[in-house]
Amino acid sequence: MLQNDPHAREMAMFRRSIICLSLLLSLTAGLVSAQQTDTKRVTYYAILLDGKKIGHTIRTRIVTAQHVTTTETMSFTLHRFETAITIFANVEVRETPDGKPLAFKSVTRMPPMAPQMVEGVVTDGKIQATVTNGDQKRQVSADWPEGALLNEGLRLLQRRKGLQAGTSFTASVFLPDQMQAVPFDITVMEPEAVDLFGRVVTLTRIRATIAGPTGEITMTDYVDADFHALKSVAPLIGMTLEMVTCDSQFALSPNDVVDVLNKSLVASPVELSPALRRKSLTFHLTPRTKQQLRIPGDDTQTVAPGDDGTVRVTVKPTAIPAGAAIGYDGDDAEVLAALKPSQYVQSDDKRIVALARKAVGDATDAAIALKRLEKFVTDYILETDLSIGYASAAEVLESRQGDCTEFAVLLAAMCRASGAPTQVIQGIAYAEQFGERKNIFVGHAWVRCYVAGRWVHLDSAMGHHDTAHIMLGQSDGPNQLLQLLTAMGQFTITRIDAPDGQPLPDETAF
Prior knowledge:
Blueprint: H1 6-29, E1 40-49, E2 52-63, E3 68-80, E4 83-95, E5 101-109, E6 116-123, E7 126-133, E8 136-143, E9 148-149, H2 151-161, E10 168-175, E11 180-196, E12 199-212, E13 215-223, E14 229-236, E15 239-246, H3 248-251, E16 266-267, E17 281-287, E18 301-305, E19 311-315, H4 333-337, H5 350-360, H6 366-380, H7 393-399, H8 404-417, E20 422-434, E21 437-451, E22 454-458, E23 469-474, H9 482-487, E24 491-497
Parallel strand pairs: 9-10
Antiparallel strand pairs: 1-2, 1-15, 2-3, 3-4, 4-5, 5-6, 6-7, 7-8, 10-11, 11-12, 12-13, 13-14, 14-15, 16-21, 17-19, 17-24, 18-19, 20-21, 20-23, 21-22
Helix pairs in contact: 5-8, 6-8, 7-8
């Protein structure tokens, strides 16, 4: 079994991060789409990662007397050594000419997994949607988020605000595939010269910033006088992701082979033996930029900021209180949310409920029950597959394949089905070997459960949770990875302290 393969863990994190950011980048570029007089406009973009072409986006906008329909079709390919993974995404939204939302549809395909689709209509401020994962369908009803806008609504808002340098405002952007609204702080900057594949033009820079729990992510659009977005740029785990307008021939041309992983790795200053990873460890994180690091904490991970911008993260061995019962009867909103089923954590699926009961057996003690669930999922997933997309718990139940995120979503669903509030955690974890590199931290996913008033961590992919895990955020789906995007690649680990507070030597023998 390969569930502890760090290559699989890192590829999973990177793949899901680029899906998230690419979709958000397309939405911010939609802030400045074509003029109202256009009947149909098709724009081609090349997707670049650190200057190398990895894919394309085709944006189509059709205007009729009744509707404005905007479609984003995206395809990009990532490589990890000799493994290539191509991801396809299509988002279509329909609005009235004055920007009111009418309908939306989002489809993501990551072969060989079945397509994942969200399709909904908006009527009188209410959303009626169908969420499809493979052959599983779920009906969802929800209120339309107050003030949330789609492409045409954003375009009209931007035109009202204009392109005067210094103009700033906030816009709430609706993400169709997650049915959530994300607030953007938008600022119009000074015009500047921009290189568009050798053609230098003067464009206005528009900055769009999202505030996440662990930091900010800033995307930049470069637009012409007619509000056409010709270039969009965003950071991605220490790299630069760009969408640049071009002709169809170049957009659809073969992609470059880009090995994406090495730049997102975080080197450990010392070797961490298995024995040491069972003890408390303190990690000194130093930011690569001037942006303040915001790392979350809980009962297992405590965070102390330093005066020089560094952050000390102490991770203690996780311990489930003995004799505690599974369940929660309090009123904490975060904990209650961790009990609810979601698009990717279908804890209300009858098959998952049955599997959880089988795993827990006759255990009533939370410590015993949760460790049984952790072990059950470790044994249940039989094959690590780098070509698996962001599969849902229900899909993992059927396929018994995946990487660290598939272990995490299935474990989270089974824990929730058993009554334990559970979150999927995104972060980094230590690997003794990664390709030719040793002593490295790579992207990883695991879970934490709320038991007897505290959060405890479980990791089915690695078989157990140790103290060489650094939590960066929590996420139930591929478009909720802002925590990971804003933290990974933004820091180095400059020192690791032993439980007695002394720095570990370069060669650690425990």
